[in-house]
Amino acid sequence: MKTGFVMAAAFLSLAGCQGPDDSAQAPTGTQESQAQGCVSRFNGIQSCAVGNAQLAATAEGLQVFGLAQGTANGVASRFSNATGWQQAARMNLGGGQGQFSLAARDADQVVSTLSVTPSANGSQLSVAPAFTGTAGGSTYRVNVYRDGVFQGGGTHEPAARVVIFTDWMGNVYMAWGFAAIDFRHLPFPFAVRADSVPQTEDGACIWRMSLKGKTFTTQVNGQQLTGDTLELVEQIGDGAYPYRHFSGIDVKGSAGSYTIVNEATALVSADGAQAR
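Given the sequence above, the corresponding structure tokens read:
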């Protein structure tokens, strides 16, 4: 069995969620940008090294060094008033590496987070979202799709993790995405067809992980499901305050190599979606 694990594409969309002040837990995006080198490799995006990471623009894209040890190093993407964001990256994971954490920010407030942790033997992946639209954390719905068709799902409590089981290992091509509007309205690729998609509440955060050419299995409410796309949808509580745009994404983790090959943001207006 090869070391490492594969995540071919991950899509996150936010349709409004309330973010607490996280100043006591981590440096702000502004402080990180001032302390580390920043590169403007992709249109409208400032990429800043976090922790001990270093950045270098290459012909392929933007290479991130210094992710071999620990999970506090990575890259922070900064932009203005985006409603959609997507980053495609190539990486090599193995030798016990592969843990990632993502944080979506509106200025210095964390809107939503996602942690991705592989097991020691690389046969399963633990995924844990955190949503802030409801006091004490929001419940969320797990949706599983295969070839764009909804396979099933169920509701999880705020602290619950989703474990997916795999029998594939190897190098990684991954695309993280984030949006403040339904991702189907954005000029980014998506794997789920509009039909058969369960209703999503206005103002809900959505994380999505899609695998191209690979499948996984997971247990949801006692039912074993096989799919290539995992969707984690916030269940909105009373009094939630929706954000209409966001200004940054942090990606931290451990990887033998990490090269961003493409990154883009989008601003959706009444006239439609425009990528930049």
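Residues 109 and 125 are 28 Å apart (CA to CA). Try to locate this feature in the token string yourself.
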